[in-house]
């Protein structure tokens, strides 16, 4: 046997065993040396090689060549090189024969790269690609005896590149689409051009019921029988068995589907496709498929795992593309909804302004008549009361006018009249009105308005508002120096400058300064009040005159507003021009602005009283003088020591000087706000446990959660009751003392149960211990006593880990941050163990660390699992990852990043080397909840390491490498091994553009909601003195019929105004869904009767006939009695308003199955069919002629619908059309009959009335206090007054009254705190406390009762109800 054929290997054995005498080669021992050498080289090589010898090209090949031959092995051995036993198939021979013959004939080598060869090696014509070379083998004579071929099959490379191009194009084409039809068309177009791999395809999408699949499109020449428009998913006769692919890809043999399957295309090949793959289209997080992709497979390629993986990636690409479109459409719908709400609210602003102006106008007319004495002579006291009425009515009118002006300007409905005006004289007069306010504030007022060369055409009213708003703004933000008003001629223009030396405006706020509802966050000002439309109104007024408005400002130095108006009138509409008007005084226009400025001046502070034994030292932080006085008064009344400061920076200084027992801080303050103060306090070891109660006007559960998450111990919404505030203060003080008392016991209990070693040690290496818990023995083999005796920690740390541990702890100590380390320690037995150490430094007053404290856990088993996991090689097709437009990450079982694709690097600016091995949730934006706590606290962590085996999705924020925030939509799919999660694939889609548009709209909505709440509260305050003064006038003044009629008009319009305010107070809660119910078992007939009583004045005024039908047997429901009555009252008033005087209303209550039905039917104007579907929409109102307009804000029926649904009921509106009347049907679930007897009514007699009481009136509004006190005196009571919380406490101690009528919104110490202190004082149980407030919600009444009040009256106070209540209270000595 020849030496080259000895040895192992299949082909050596086969060549030795082969009978070569039957071939032209003859026995091997006679082979020429050149052949023997070539065969030896071939057999020794691990690279696929074949030797063809002689004219017939007899084949010899090595082991590596066997896979290329497939089923032709071993028959190819010894066969002629161009026979069918080898590569003699016609398609293959046509390619290789010319090349082989050329080498034999010319003796020149040739080669080919990625050559397509059609093989018949696996029983069918197979598409394959080879890179090979043909080299001549010369015999001893020099002639060519054979051909040596080195071969490399590149089929997988060629197919991979081809399929990669398809995936890239599919990703690029679908990512540009924003509609589902466009996405379907783009995807199928790409697949239709990929006929080599997808000869045909069909995309079916399921309906919402998941019962019918509809053809969304197809690719390739698919016959009609194979592509029905609709397929019943579970139909047995359906051409495609879609249900088989419900849970994953399903392979289908086409021949079994029917004769039509033979006509399905095979791509570029003459054969028909033999197989197809059914793939589910499943959106992330969805349980059921959304559709199916039917993908035909090539008849010339085997359907192996790689091919299946490629088709699955196609389906995944389409799924992601559809999900992107769904997300895009959802964002678009949300944006459109926000824009529509924005439009509706703008219309609402205009409506609400008109509605408020009506009662104000009807009030001011009779007031003017009464003040003039036309209706009868007045005493000085009566005249003062009328002045109070007039002043507060004008204050209301100013608020309403500002809102109406802005609405008109925004809607383009301003009826301006431009007349030639001496602008210098007008501006001087307006500016001079502020002189008294600036002098009282210690500021200078400089007016530089020389005469202009010619009159300017302006709308006088608009110019007054423009100047007064700029002056008011300057005064609000200026504390030192002065204000300068200049009006000078320019180049064809008049230039107005209003300059101040105030706090200035940050550069980043300047571009937004004239946006509606915008406020500069954290700006120092005299008051935080304001609607946020003043400067936006100024800008609109300047534009109205064809001028320009600009602002220049330097923080800390001041601000200058510049208005430039063109001279002449060519720039103005000709139809708006008019003749010059007679000069008029500007005092009336300026008075409300000056009055508002004066209210912002600081009040005299009341000296701090001493604390009652057992109470606490409290630091009160609030920038509003009124609130400071009110709250401090409450706290002082409860016996606490109270220290007050105006902002967070002063609070920090006060805490450093003397540590209080508790801090009570407002959330919104200039400079350092309440949240910033919290961060500073929690960052210092000395104040980390200091109790802090946060006060905020932001209501709602989400605001409470935000406040508590920022580190507050408690969160109290404004308005709050005095009792509630004092209770919470007392609770926090007691908890703080309890924590101090039990600290050692709790600490001991903690260390006995914690699964780790708790320690306290010196702050620097080698870390000697002052405390160590016993679990350290299991970690190190040393007892805790050994460490306390002097054994330090550093010698136990593995030498390779010690430098990094020292460095990281030192850095954490220096940066005042906690540390978390993983490293190895040496056990006493000589082994190493992995530990996790979590700790922090403790600092003294100077900021120097004096010790470390923390916990050390044993994580040896976890580390062993991690090392084992590194040996597990996951299968991940990188094609999708490398080319998708979305960022893709892969993590291990604990959420640590093991892979990120190029799109992720482009999107975030991070590179893989920076994030490898980190937990991905560390990339989350710091503003996201849970960003600082990783253990199951954030949604991203749950996606990556949660216990489930299904994926999920949510929106989140990443941080780019530049530090900027990146909004993303996340979708996660778990990687499973043996049913357990071992990793996660995370997709992140950039939402920057979507969020930018959405945020702009949401910011506009937020500002409008805040404005609504502020406006309603502001409108309530002036109404209290108006109402009281009316009662006083009626009681003390002898008026004729006209005078009494005037009083009646004002009273009626005041009532109407109060009703409008009540509705307005609910509007922001309605839009946010924050109405709270207090449910009890309620008798519905009683609700109907109470509602009829409430609506009776309006029904009498309209002269309506009302019929009521109630069941004999009472019907009950579980509900909020106040809200249920509100539902019926709204329906009754709605019916009354829209029914002609003298109409008929029918009210009915009856059982309907398990529901109670309340029906309110009228004979009014009816509802048109197109309006019937929108009647419950927010701010919607039916069109009404002016003679039928009865007022309203367009929120009543929306409120009714919300309240009904919150009670688990429904409401329906019916009408036959205009002029046919309307009927509203409310259905509420009935409650079961009570099984226990109801308590008998309280039969105790009311206390005997007495002719006189001793009453203290407490109100910071002097008008309100004076009018109420004088009214009480007319009832023969003894009355004293106080105007703040502290004065109230002193007056009670001095005069010992029977009753205290206490305003809630007092400056400094509010009414709730005063009530708490009074209840805690020596007269606490003898006093009758009555709350007077502008807040009338059920929750406000509840807060008042909790603070210790006996009764709660909403401003404007029901005078008759107040008189009746006072008469029922015991007089002095009767308690």
Quick take:
The chain has 1375 residues and is of the alpha+beta class. Helix content is 39%, strand content 21%.
Secondary structure: elements and pairs:
Elements: H1 10-17, H2 33-44, E1 49-53, E2 58-61, H3 66-69, H4 90-106, E3 110-119, E4 126-138, E5 144-153, H5 155-175, H6 180-192, E6 201-206, E7 212-219, E8 230-232, E9 250-253, E10 275-281, E11 291-296, H7 305-372, H8 380-411, E12 419-421, H9 423-432, H10 435-440, E13 444-448, E14 456-458, H11 460-476, E15 482-489, E16 493-500, H12 534-544, E17 548-554, E18 558-566, H13 587-599, E19 617-621, H14 625-637, E20 641-645, H15 648-657, E21 662-666, H16 674-683, E22 692-696, H17 701-709, E23 714-717, H18 722-753, E24 757-761, E25 769-772, H19 776-780, H20 784-788, H21 802-814, E26 819-826, E27 832-843, E28 849-858, H22 860-869, H23 878-883, E29 887-892, E30 897-900, H24 902-908, H25 912-915, H26 939-945, E31 952-959, E32 965-977, E33 980-990, H27 992-1020, H28 1023-1036, H29 1041-1072, E34 1080-1083, H30 1084-1101, E35 1105-1109, E36 1116-1119, H31 1121-1137, E37 1144-1152, E38 1155-1162, H32 1169-1172, H33 1196-1206, E39 1210-1214, E40 1222-1229, E41 1254-1258, H34 1262-1274, E42 1278-1282, H35 1285-1295, E43 1299-1303, H36 1311-1320, E44 1328-1333, ...
Please provide a written account of the structure.
The protein has 1375 residues and is an alpha+beta fold. The chain has 8 domains: 151 residues, Beta-Lactamase (2-Layer Sandwich), CATH 3.30.450.20; 145 residues, 2-Layer Sandwich (Beta-Lactamase); 160 residues, Histidine kinase-like ATPase, C-terminal domain (Heat Shock Protein 90, 2-Layer Sandwich), CATH 3.30.565.10; 133 residues, Rossmann fold (3-Layer(aba) Sandwich), CATH 3.40.50.2300; 87 residues, PAS domain (Beta-Lactamase, 2-Layer Sandwich), CATH 3.30.450; 76 residues, Beta-Lactamase; 155 residues, Histidine kinase-like ATPase, C-terminal domain (Heat Shock Protein 90), CATH 3.30.565.10; 114 residues, Rossmann fold (3-Layer(aba) Sandwich), CATH 3.40.50. The chain is built from 38 helices and 45 strands. The chain has a 6-stranded antiparallel β-sheet with strand order 8-7-6-11-10-9. It has a 5-stranded antiparallel β-sheet with strand order 2-1-5-4-3, with helices on both faces. The longest helix is centred in the first third of the chain and has 68 residues. The chain is elongated and about 150 Å long. GO terms for molecular function: ATP binding; methyltransferase activity; phosphorelay sensor kinase activity. It is an enzyme of class 2 (transferase).
């Amino acid at each position: 046997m020849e030496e080259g054929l000895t040895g192992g290997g299949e082909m050596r054995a086969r060549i030795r065993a082969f009978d070569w005498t039957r071939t032209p080669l003859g026995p091997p021992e006679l082979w020429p040396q050149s052949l023997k050498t070539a065969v030896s080289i071939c057999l020794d090589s691990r690279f696929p090689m074949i030797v063809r010898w002689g004219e017939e090209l007899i084949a010899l090949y090595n082991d590596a060549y066997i896979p290329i031959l497939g089923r032709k092995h071993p028959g190819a051995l010894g066969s002629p090189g161009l026979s069918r036993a080898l590569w003699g198939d016609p398609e293959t021979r046509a390619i290789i024969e010319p090349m082989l013959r050329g080498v034999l004939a010319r003796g020149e080598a040739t080669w080919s790269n990625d050559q397509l060869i059609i093989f018949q090696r696996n029983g069918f014509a197979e598409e394959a690609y080879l890179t090979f070379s043909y080299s001549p083998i010369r015999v001893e004579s020099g002639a060519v005896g054979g051909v040596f071929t080195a071969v490399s099959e590149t089929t997988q490379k060629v197919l991979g590149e081809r399929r990669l191009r398809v995936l890239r194009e599919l990703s690029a084409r679908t990512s540009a689409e924003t509609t589902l039809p466009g996405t379907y068309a783009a995807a199928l177009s790409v697949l239709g051009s990929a006929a080599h791999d997808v000869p045909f395809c069909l995309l079916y999408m399921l309906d919402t019921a998941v019962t019918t699949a509809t053809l969304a499109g197809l690719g390739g020449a698919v016959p009609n029988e194979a592509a029905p428009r609709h397929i019943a998913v579970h139909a047995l006769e359906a051409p495609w068995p879609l249900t088989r692919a419900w849970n994953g890809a399903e392979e289908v043999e086409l021949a079994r589907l029917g004769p039509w399957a033979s006509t399905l295309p095979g791509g570029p090949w003459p054969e028909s496709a033999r197989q197809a793959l059914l793939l589910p289209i499943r959106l992330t997080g969805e349980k059921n498929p959304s559709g199916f992709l039917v993908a035909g497979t090539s008849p010339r390629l085997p359907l192996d795992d790689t091919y299946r993986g490629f088709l699955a990636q196609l389906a995944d690409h389409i799924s992601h593309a559809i999900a992107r479109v769904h997300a895009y459409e959802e964002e678009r719908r949300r944006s459109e909804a926000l824009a529509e709400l924005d439009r509706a609210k703008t219309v609402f602003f205009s409506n609400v302004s008109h509605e408020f102006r009506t009662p104000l106008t009807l009030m001011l007319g009779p007031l003017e008549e009464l003040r003039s004495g036309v209706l009868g002579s007045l005493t000085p006291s009566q005249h003062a009361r009328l002045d109070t009425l007039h002043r507060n009515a004008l204050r209301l009118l100013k608020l309403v006018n500002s809102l109406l002006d802005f609405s008109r300007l925004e809607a383009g409905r301003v009826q301006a009249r431009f007349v030639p005006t001496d602008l210098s004289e007008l501006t001087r007069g307006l500016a001079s009105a502020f002189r008294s306010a600036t002098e009282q504030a210690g500021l200078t007022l400089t007016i530089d308005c020389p005469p202009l060369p010619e009159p300017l055409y302006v709308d006088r009213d608009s110019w007054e508002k423009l100047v007064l708003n700029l002056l008011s703004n300057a005064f609000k933000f200026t504390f030192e120096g002065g204000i300068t008003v200049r009006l000078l001629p320019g180049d064809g223009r008049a230039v107005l400058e209003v300059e101040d030396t105030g706090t200035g405006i940050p550069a980043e706020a300047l571009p937004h300064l004239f946006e509606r509802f915008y406020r500069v966050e954290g700006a120092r000002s005299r008051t935080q009040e304001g609607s946020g439309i003043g400067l936006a109104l100024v800008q609109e007024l300047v534009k109205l005159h064809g001028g320009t408005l600009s602002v220049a400002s330097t923080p800390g130095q001041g601000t200058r507003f510049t208005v430039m108006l063109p001279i002449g009138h060519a720039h103005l509409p000709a139809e708006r021009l008019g003749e010059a008007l007679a000069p008029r005084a500007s005092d009336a226009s300026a008075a409300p602005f000056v009055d508002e400025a004066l209210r912002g001046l600081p009040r005299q502070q009341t000296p701090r009283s001493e604390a009652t034994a057992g109470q606490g030292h409290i630091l009160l932080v609030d920038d509003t003088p009124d609130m400071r006085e009110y709250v401090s008064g409450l706290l002082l009344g409860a016996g606490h020591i109270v220290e007050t400061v105006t902002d967070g920076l002063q609070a920090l200084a006060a805490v450093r000087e003397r540590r209080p027992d508790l801090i009570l801080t407002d959330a919104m303050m200039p400079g350092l706000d309440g949240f910033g103060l919290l961060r500073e306090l929690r960052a210092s070891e000395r104040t980390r446990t200091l109790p802090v109660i946060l006060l905020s006007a932001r209501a709602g559960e989400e605001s409470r959660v935000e406040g508590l998450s920022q580190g507050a111990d408690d969160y109290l919404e404004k308005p709050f009751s005095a009792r509630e505030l004092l209770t919470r203060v007392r609770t926090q003080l007691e908890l703080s003392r309890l924590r101090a008392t039990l600290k050692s016991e709790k600490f001991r209990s903690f260390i006995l149960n914690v699964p780790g070693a708790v320690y306290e040690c010196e702050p620097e290496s080698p870390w000697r211990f002052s405390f160590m818990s016993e679990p350290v023995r299991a970690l190190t083999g040393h007892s805790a006593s050994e460490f306390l005796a002097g054994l330090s920690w550093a010698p136990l740390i593995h030498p390779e880990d010690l430098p990094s541990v020292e460095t990281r702890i030192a850095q954490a100590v220096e940066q005042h941050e906690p540390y978390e380390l993983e490293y190895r320690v040496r056990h006493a037995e000589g082994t190493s163990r992995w530990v996790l150490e979590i700790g922090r430094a403790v600092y003294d007053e100077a900021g120097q660390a004096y010790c470390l404290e923390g916990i050390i856990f044993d994580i040896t088993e976890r580390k062993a699992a991690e090392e084992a996991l590194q040996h597990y090689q996951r299968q991940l097709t990188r094609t999708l990852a490398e080319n998708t437009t979305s960022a893709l990450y892969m993590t291990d079982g604990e959420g640590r990043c093991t892979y990120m694709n190029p799109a992720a690097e482009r999107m975030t600016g991070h590179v893989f080397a920076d994030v490898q091995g980190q937990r991905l949730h560390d990339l989350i934006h710091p503003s996201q909840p849970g960003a600082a706590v990783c253990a199951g606290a954030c949604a991203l962590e749950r996606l990556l390491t949660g216990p489930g085996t299904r994926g999920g999705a949510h929106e989140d924020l990443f941080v780019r490498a530049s530090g900027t925030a990146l909004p993303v939509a996340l979708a996660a799919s778990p990687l499973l091994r043996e049913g357990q999660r071992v990793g996660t694939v995370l997709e992140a889609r950039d939402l920057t553009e979507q969020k930018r548009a959405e945020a702009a709209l949401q910011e506009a909505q937020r500002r409008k909601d805040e404005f609504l709440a502020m406006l309603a509260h502001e409108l309530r305050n002036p109404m209290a003195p108006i109402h009281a003064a009316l009662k006083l006038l009626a009681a003390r003044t002898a008026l004729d019929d006209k005078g009494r009629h005037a009083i009646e008009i004002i009273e009626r319009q005041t009532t109407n105004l109060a009703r409008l305010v009540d509705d307005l107070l609910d509007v922001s809660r309605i839009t946010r869904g924050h109405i709270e119910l207090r449910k009890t078992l309620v008798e519905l007939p009683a609700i109907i009767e109470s509602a009829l009583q409430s609506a009776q004045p309006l029904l009498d005024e309209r002269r309506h006939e009302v019929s009521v039908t109630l069941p004999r047997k009472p019907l009950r429901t579980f509900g909020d009695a106040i809200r249920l009555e509100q539902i019926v009252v709204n329906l009754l008033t709605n019916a009354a308003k829209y029914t002609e005087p003298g109409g008929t209303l029918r009210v009915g209550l009856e059982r309907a199955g398990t529901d109670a039905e309340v029906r309110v039917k009228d004979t009014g104007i009816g509802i048109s069919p197109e309006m019937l579907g929108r009647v419950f929409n927010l701010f919607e109102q039916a069109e009404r002629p002016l003679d039928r307009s009865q007022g309203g804000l367009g929120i009543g029926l929306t409120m009714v619908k919300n309240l009904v649904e919150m009670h688990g009921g429904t409401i329906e509106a019916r009408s036959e059309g205009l002029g046919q009347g309307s009927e509203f049907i409310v259905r509420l679930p009935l409650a079961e009959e009570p099984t226990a007897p109801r308590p008998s009514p309280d039969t105790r007699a009311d206390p005997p009335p007495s002719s006189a009481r001793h009453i203290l009136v407490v109100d910071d509004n002097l008008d309100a206090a004076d009018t109420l006190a004088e009214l009480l005196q007319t009832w023969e009571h003894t009355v004293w007054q106080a105007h703040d919380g502290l004065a109230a406490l002193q007056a009670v101690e001095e005069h010992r009254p029977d009753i205290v009528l206490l305003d809630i919104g007092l400056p400094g110490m509010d009414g709730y705190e005063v009530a708490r202190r009074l209840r805690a004082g020596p007269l606490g149980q003898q006093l009758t406390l009555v709350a007077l407030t502008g807040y009338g919600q059920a929750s406000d009444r509840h807060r008042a009762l909790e603070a210790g009040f006996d009764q709660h009256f909403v401003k404007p106070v029901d005078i008759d109800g107040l008189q009746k209540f006072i008469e029922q209270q015991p007089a002095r000595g009767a308690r």
